[in-house]
Amino acid sequence: MRHSSSCGYFGFVIVLVAIGLLAFTLQAQHVLHPIHPAIDRTVLVDTVVMDPIDSDALLAEELPLRRTGRPNIIAIANTDHAYSPANSGSVEDIGNGWIAWRLKIEAPGSKSINLGTLFDVPHSTALYLLGPDGSTPYRAITSQDGTRGEFWTPMIEASVMEIYAEMLADEFPAFEAGFVITSINLGFEDLRLTNAFADDREEGERGISEPCNIDVLCPQGSPWLDQIRSVGRTLRSGVALCSGAMINNTAQDRTPYFITADHCGATAGNASQIVIYWNYQNSFCRTPGSAQSGQNGNGSLSQFSSGTTLRMRRGPSSDIALLQVNSSPPSGYNIHWAGWDRNSNNSSSGAGIHHPAGAEKRISIYSSSTFQQTVFIGGIGNVASYIVQWSQGITQGGSSGSPLFNQAKRMIGVLSGGSSSCANPNGTDAYARIATAWTGSNSGERLVDWLDPLGTGQTTLDGVDETPPPVPGPFSLIFPAEGVDDIDATAFNAFTWGASADATSYTVTISTNADLSFPVVGPTDRASPNITIFPGTLSQNTTYYWGVVAKNAGPTNTPSTPAVGSFSTLDPTPPPSCPGDINGDGDTDIDDFIILAGNFGTPSGAMLADGDLNDDGAVDIDDFIVLAGDFGCTSP
After folding, report:
1. Residue 583: what pLDDT?
2. Where are the beta strands (DSSP E) in 194-335?
3. Alpha-carbon gap, residue 57 to 194, rounded angstroms
C-alpha cells in the first residue's frame, strides 16, 4: 500500500447517514447528501429570513373552518418578493467547469417550506431541496421537470430549506434568467405531529391521522393492491391537501389522467401548481385502533409529480374534476390506472382508499350496499352521491377526492364529504357519482371525452398497470478505479459509477470483505450515480470492496461491472529513514530480520509491519535483499 507524504491528518469525523424507510413500491426512501465535496461548508450562504409566523395561532384559526366541501389548508403563501440567482444566493466554483448556486430560506415558527417557481433551466441543471442537515429525500429536479415553465416543489418538513443547484459554468446565465422563486409557502401544521380534522366532525386525540384508520398494508388491503397503487396525495399551490387517483381510459394508452373532487380547488389557472405524491404509505400494518396507528408513520414522500393541466370540472352537482399530469410518472413508481364503472348501480361491497389528514395512505371497507341520494354539502351544494357506511375504517379531511371502488374493483365515485370518524364510526360518507359527470354541455364539463376517447360507449373498464420497465442497462464503476491504493480516508471522496439506462435507483455497498458482508457503508439507495463518502467513514491503510446494483420496479436488477471492485486507503505512517526498518524503532537490525523471517512467504496482503519492504504486498526474497542491503542502518 502507498504511503502518504503527510505524517498526520485532521481528527474530525463526519458520519455518513443513510436512512432506509421501506415503501410499498420503491423499497427505500432516498436520503441524499448532494453538496459537492469542493464546497467550503464554513462559508456563510446567502439567506432569506422570512417574517416569523405563529403556527399554533394559524392552526387554531384553521381547524374550526374545516368542514365538508373544503380542502385542508396547511400553509400560507408569501408572494411579495421574487428571488432568483440574479438577485440572491451564493455562487461557488466546484471545478471541472461546474459551479454551484445556493440559497437558504429561514422561516421562524414554520413547520414546513415549499416553493412555487418559474422554471426554465438549462439541461445541465440538477437542483436539490435540502433540509437543515444538508440532506434531502427527493431526487434531483432537472430541466425535464419544467416543461410548462413552472414548477411547484414538494415540501421540506422543517423551518429551514436550502436550494442547492449545480450546472455547467457556461450555462449559469441561462439558469440565472430561467429560475425564479415566486412563492414561499410556510406550513403552519406539522403533518408528522398533529391531526387534521375536517368537515363538521368532533376533534379527537392528536396524531397524524385517527387511530381507527387502516394502513393499506394491513390484511384488509390485500385484495386491493392494484387499486392502492392508483391513489395519490395532492398539495395545491403549496397550501391545500386532498386525495385522488390515476384513472384509465378506453384507449388504455396510460394517459396520466388523475381524478379528484372539484371542491379541492383545481382551476385552469392553478392546476400547474399541484404536486401529487405517490406510494406515500406506511411500510407495515399498524394495528387499527392502537396508539401506534394514530402516531407518525414512516411513509416516504420521495415519489412525486409536479404540475397538472385541468381537463374538466363539474360542480356543484357532480363535484368531480379531471386533471392530466404534465409529465408521466416514472415507470419505477409502478402506478396503476384504476378502472371505472359509469353505471348508476349501487355496490354491495367495496373499498375507499385515501390520505386522511394528508397522512400515509389508508383503506376503508364497506360490506353493506351503497344507496344513492342527493346530499347538500356545505361549500359545494347539492351533490348526487353514493352514500357509504363503513364496516371498517373512516375518512377525514384530506381524504376528499379519493376514489370509491365497487365489488368489481372499479371506481364509481370520489369523496365529497361525510360524518364518519373514530368517535362516530357509523357515520356515513358521500361520494360524487362518476355517472353524473359523464356527459355535459362541453368537454370541459364532462368525462366522456377524456375517459372514452375512442367513443366505444363502454359503461365499464378495468384498470391497467404501468408498462413493466425494461431491465436496467449495464454500467461500470468509475471512481475509485479498480485496485487503486491512494484513497485518502481523511478527505471527502465522491464515489461515482456510470448511469444505467432505465434504472430508478442504485444500491451501494462498501465493505472490508470481498463478499460485501458486514458493510461499513450501506446497503444504501441512491437516486443518482454517485455517493459522497465523508471523512472518517473509511479507515486508513485498509483494503475495501464495493459494488453497486441498478434497480427499478421490475423483477430484475443489474450489478455493476465489475460486480465487486476493490481499492485501498492511504497508509499514514511515514516511510522509515532506514529502508529496512520494519518495527519502526529507527534501526535496521536483528529484530527486523526476525519479523521478516517469521512472515517470509506471505503471498499477498502484507504491510510494512509484516516485512513488506518494497510495498508489493508480499514478503519474499526481494524484501530480504532490501533488509540485507540496509542491515546496520541507524537513524540519526
Report:
1. 84
2. 231-236, 240-247, 257-260, 274-278, 304-306, 308-314, 320-325
3. 14
Beta bridge partners of 587: 634
Establish whether 46 is a catalytic residue: no
Half-sphere exposure of 134 (CA within 13 A, CB side): 15
Q: Is 22 helix (H, G, I), strand (E, B) or coil?
A: coil
Confidence of residue 28 (pLDDT cuts 50, 70, 90): very low
C-alpha cell at 485: 491504493
Residue whose entry in the numeric block shows the C-alpha cell 348501480: 345
Integer-rounded Cα radius of gyration of the chain: 30
2 pLDDT tier (thresholds 50, 70, 90): very low
Separation between Cα atoms, residue 318 and residue 329, nearest integer Å:
28
**pLDDT tens digits along 87-113:** 999 999 988 788 999 999 999 999 999
- Work out the number of other CB atoms within 10 angstroms of the CB of residue 500: 24
Question: Are 76 and 62 contacting, i.e. CB atoms less than 8 angstroms apart?
Answer: no
Query: For residue 145, what is its C-alpha cell?
Result: 421537470
User: E strands of 498-584, at which residues?
Assistant: 505-511, 521-526, 530-533, 543-551, 558-559, 565-568
Q: Is 3 a catalytic residue?
A: no
What is the full DSSP assignment across 404-447?
EE-TTS-EEEEEEEE---SS-TT-EEEEEEGGGGS--SSTTS-S
Cell of 371: 344507496
**3-class SS of residue 249:** coil
Q: Which of 124, 215, 237, 263 is catalytic?
A: 263
Q: Is 554 exposed, middle or buried (0-12, 13-18, 19+ CB in 10 A)?
A: middle
Residue 169, Cβ neighbours under 10 Å: how many?
A: 15
> pLDDT higher for 16 or 167?
167
pTM: 0.71
- How far is Cα 189 from Cα 59, in angstroms, rounded to an integer? 6
Residue 502 bears catalytic tag: no
DSSP state of 468: P
Q: In the prediction, which pLDDT does 184 show? A: 97
Side chain identity at 474, as an amino acid letter? P
Catalytic residue among 319, 341, 452, 612: 319
Of 243, 300, 364, 400, which residue is the catalytic one?
400
CA-to-CA distance for 398 and 70, rounded, in angstroms? 9
Q: What digits encode the pLDDT tens for the residues 136-182?
A: 888 889 888 876 788 999 999 999 999 999 999 999 999 999 999 99
CB atoms within 10 A of CB 206: 12
> Residue 52 contacts by C-beta under 8 Å, 6 or more apart in sequence?
107, 108, 109
2 torsion bin: left (phi>0), alpha (psi -120 to 50), beta (else): beta
Between the CA of residue 364 and those of 124, 160, 395, 399, what are the distances in Å?
A: 45, 36, 8, 11
Report the chain's mean pLDDT, rounded to a whole number. Answer: 87
